[in-house]
Amino acid sequence: MSNSAITITIKLFAVYQEAYGIPELVWEFPNGTPVSAVCDRLIAERPELAQWRDITRFGINLIFVEPDTVLKNGDEVVLIPPVSGG
Question: Per its UniProt record, what InterPro entries does this chain match (predicted)?
């Protein structure tokens, strides 16, 4: 069923952008997927990002959300790792 998939845009910052070398990705996920699954897939593709999993915050459409927040079609997801000052 094609309506069971959603398309989201992932904005990459800091270590995530460095790992991919691009500012954003557009991915499809099954309907009902939590935002934390975005991080899981990023880490599956770029294992060096695993160290950031537990300290990354999630945003959907410019609002900070909990990792279990369910994605909706067209959402813009931001993963915000800790940023060091200096």
Answer: Beta-grasp_dom_sf (IPR012675), MOCS2A (IPR044672), Mopterin_synth/thiamin_S_b (IPR016155), ThiS/MoaD-like (IPR003749)
